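Give me the fold.
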Amino acid sequence: MSSDATRKGSDGEDAESPTTAPVAPDRPVVDGTAKTPDEIRAEIAELSDERLQHVEEVREELAESIEELAARLDVPARVQARKDATVAEIRTRGNELIASARQQLDRAFRSVGAIVRERPGVVAAAAGMVLLIVLGGRRR
């Protein structure tokens, strides 16, 4: 028999089917008759690039997860950050309260000044009453 007879089946097709399973499940079946060697090399390089890109993406996700876990487990740093945020908030709120108090005192002094200018006698009488109450309380 000739070598062609051993490779061909009874119906004239190759004994090895083009849908032969790959040697390893992660390796593609390569049929060299449909593409040129350069096209096959480009396809393999593209598959490798996709896999490398996927690996890099997974690495980045893993690095982000590890950083987040490390930050969660670093209790002293979290306490310090919380303290710093609270101190900053208290300072901001304190400055707002001081500004508000100053505005209210300015308004009060302006209104007292207006009363003194409009009714000096009433103010003098009220000051005298306060003085008498203070001095009377000291005698007892």
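The chain has a mean pLDDT of 79.
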